[in-house]
Amino acid sequence: MPMPTPMSIPMSARRRPPPPPPLPRRLRAHLAVAAARALATQPPARIRAFLSAASHGAEAASRRRAQMARDDVTTVSLVCRGSRGCVPRSVATALLCRMSGTWPTWCVGVRTIAPFAAHAWVEADGLMVGEDEPAGYFRPLLAVEPRRTARSAARVTTVTSRPASPAAVPTASTARPATDAPATPTGSAAGPSAGDLPAATR
Questions:
Q1: Pairing between strand 127-128 and 138-144?
Q2: Neighbours of 150 (CB within 10 A)
Q3: Is 29's pLDDT higher than 80?
Q4: Distances in whole angstroms, Cα of residue 82 to Cα of each of 20, 55, 112, 160
């Protein structure tokens, strides 16, 4: 079974947390974090299926709404604020947006420069939310986008462009900081598609 690639340590994960939100928002954030932490222990296919179902009927989240959700999540959870918390952080952000009837685009991909590592994040209005890295720094392999029609299947986009390195969905239990990741030689073969993601790595 392919081993997961160590996840990255984005600069945004080292930010000082924003001021605490009002109590109702904190309670919703705690619920989203609890669900996300439980979901982050599941196989990638199950995470994708759950998020696809959750996105049914949701409007696209604005960048402002997605950023507020991310801030609330990182305020109430040390795990989501930590350098290894990209999976629960991104999932909790998406779930918290869903509580207001919206949905960002949830993404899993790889860093495009060495040391190569897997990362999970959310996007809104076509831009990464809460990530300090420039456009193109991460290359998505999988994306779960919002769908307005509840009867429609959630749109799960598989990005088939050539990633810089083979990668798997990062896990909360096996992920390591990117500083421990071995450098990938230049000119490596084409990376995996989303179908190559291990079905039982989480």
A1: unpaired
A2: 9
A3: yes
A4: 17, 26, 22, 30
